[in-house]
Design brief:
Shape: globular
CATH superfamily: Dehydroquinase, class II
Structural class: alpha/beta
Radius of gyration: 14 Å
Number of strands: 5
Distance between the termini: 11 Å
Strand order of the largest sheet: 2-1-3-4-5
Number of helices: 5
Helix content: 25-40%
Order of helices and strands: EHHEHEHEEH
CATH architecture: 3-Layer(aba) Sandwich
Strand content: 15-25%
CATH topology: Rossmann fold
Length: 139
C-alpha cells in the first residue's frame, strides 16, 4: 500500500511551534514511528509552506497510490485552489488536523477541502494521521 502524506504551511515547525496545541514532537519523528509500526505501507512525505507546491503535489500524487493524508494547515480555511485540486484527483484524500479546529478561532471552522475529501479527522493530535491511515488499511 502506498500512502502520501502532505503537510501544509508551518507544519515544518511541529515540535517547536505552540506545543500546547501541537505537541512537542516533530513530524519527522512521528513519521518514523508510523513507518516502524506499519512496515507494509510505503510512505511518501511532502511538506511545503507554498500553496502552489501543495497543489502540484496533489496533482502528482492524485492519480497513483492508495491514499493521500492531507493536513493543509491554514490553507484549509483559505484555499479554493487546494479544494479544487482535491476535487480534481482520483486518489482518495483524508483531511486531517492535529487540533480540533472547531474549538479554535471561527475562521478555522471553514474548510475548502472537506466537501471533496473521503473523510475528516481532527483533534486527536498526531494520532489523527494514524487514524486516517487506518481508514485506508480497512478498505
Amino acid at each position: 500500500m502506498k500512502i502520501t502524506i502532505i503537510n501544509g504551511p508551518n507544519l515544518n515547525l511541529l515540535g517547536k511551534r505552540e506545543p500546547e496545541i501541537y505537541g512537542s514532537e516533530s513530524f519527522e519523528d512521528y513519521l518514523g514511528i508510523l513507518k516502524t509500526k506499519y512496515p507494509s505501507v510505503s510512505f511518501e512525505y511532502f511538506q511545503s509552506n507554498v500553496e502552489g507546491e501543495l497543489v502540484n503535489k496533489l496533482h502528482q500524487a492524485g492519480f497513483e497510490g492508495d491514499g493521500i493524508i492531507l493536513n493543509a494547515g491554514a490553507y484549509t480555511h483559505t484555499s479554493v485552489a487546494i479544494g479544487d485540486a482535491v476535487k480534481g484527483i482520483t486518489t482518495a484524500v483524508i483531511e486531517v488536523h492535529i487540533s480540533n479546529t472547531f474549538s479554535r478561532e471561527s475562521i478555522r471552522h471553514q474548510s475548502y477541502i472537506s466537501a471533496n475529501a473521503k473523510g475528516v479527522i481532527l483533534g486527536f493530535g498526531m494520532q489523527s494521521y494514524e487514524l486516517a491511515l487506518q481508514s485506508f488499511l480497512l478498505q
